UniProtKB/TrEMBL annotation:
It comes from the Eukaryota. Belongs to the WD repeat CDC20/Fizzy family. This is CDC20/Fizzy WD40 domain-containing protein. GO terms for molecular function: anaphase-promoting complex binding; ubiquitin ligase activator activity. WD repeats lie at residues 199-240, 283-324, 422-455. CDD domains: WD40. It comes from Asparagus officinalis (Garden asparagus). Component of the anaphase promoting complex/cyclosome (APC/C), a cell cycle-regulated E3 ubiquitin-protein ligase complex that controls progression through mitosis and the G1 phase of the cell cycle. PANTHER family: CELL DIVISION CYCLE 20 CDC20 FIZZY -RELATED (PTHR19918), FI02843P (PTHR19918:SF8). Pfam families: WD40_CDC20-Fz.
Amino acid sequence: MDAGSYTSVSSEKMRSRMRSRAPLREVGSTVFIPPLRSSSLSNPLSRQSSADRFIPDRSAMDFDYALYALTESRKEKENSSSATASPSKEAYRKLLAETLLNNRTRILAFKSKPPTPTDGFLSGSTSDPLTSSSHLTKPKQRRYISQTAERTLDAPDLVDDYYLNLLDWGSSNVLSIALGNTVYLWNASNGSTSELVTIDEDVGPVTSVSWAPDGQHIAVGLNNSHIQLWDSTNSRLLRTLKGVHRSRVGSLAWNNNILTTGGMDGKIVNNDVRIRSHAIQTYRGHTQEVCGLKWSGSGQQLASGGNDNLLHIWDLSMSSSTPPPNQNQYVHRFEDHMAAVKALAWCPFQSNLLASGGGGSDRCIKFWNTHTGACLNSIDTGSQVCSLLWNKNERELLSSHGFTQNQLTLWKYPSMVKMAELTGHTSRVLFMAQSPDGCTVASAAGDETLRFWNVFGTPEVAKPVPKGNSVPFSSYNHIR
């Protein structure tokens, strides 16, 4: 179509089509065509000012004679020199011409491979340090990450409360989850389900669960401020901790024999479960409910997040049963989050690195150096951050989210590039737990489902998990 036909079209639709097609052509460019002849180059003898010798301007006869003298004398000299040239000189000229021709044809041409050595230290022997297979590094293959859950279990009556912690995976490969007033145990080795305890209506619902390091004992926090300690092997209640808090206990964290509890009253209490007077230390700093508690790998620092948008770092040596008035116990107090801080995760490969996630009004994942108190990075995820888990084998972080996508997002650390987004839940993914081998992640959401994701790789010895239909974890293939 030419320019005239473009101007004849007046509809807005055709103008939009022209604009969309604009990148396919070069706009405003013209083609330069050099002149085929030049007056200054039409006659080489007329450029007297740039000639290599002076020719006097006399007559036409003189011009012709001068041209004859110049050309004929040069030819005679060349003929005479060639007639008297020696055979060796002729051979040298021929060799020089062939060399120049070969060099011109070899420009930008591929070189032939050098011959394979037959002996010496480059012969490719197994003892050669330069060619040994042990020194050849193969490129690392990218891990396949499945976008769908490997297994989906029904979890009816799961309390949809952001501030609670109702899921944990113990070291004995048993998953515990609180559904309403009942705590269920799901054995990941054989897929069997058992009921640990059902709390009375006036005491429940269950507000938190946490496995002890031995994988046999489990702590259960209740809505009436009590904490129960159970032996899961015999389904036996060992003791009940009372008088620790004045309201529900929504967060629990173990540090060897110390059980740390966080309540709606804002208090954090260290309980030594071996002694009668179990409440040995108290941390005071939060003004609202404590919804996140995590001990560092060394057991020296405790991170706590609350509904007051605060994140505190406590040191084990600074705790006290009777803290002095007007004296801060915390090592660091971070006020950068703009919503409740529930998601907390200590880095497994850097002891002083902590990741924290904010609620719906914040939506950020922040990274902290707990030695210096510096905020290393902050990423706006676009949605409520409910839980965080580090990959134990790679520098990766997994986060679970609420509205609008209700997804799990895998991040590469420290670039924080998204590696995968796992979707399937139809409500906010409130809780996550990691298997003992560090490969599988269980997620529980407000849609009353429990899903298992092979997001961190494949275990070295994979044990088959038979499908079970036991209530309340009955497998199903539809979304309710």
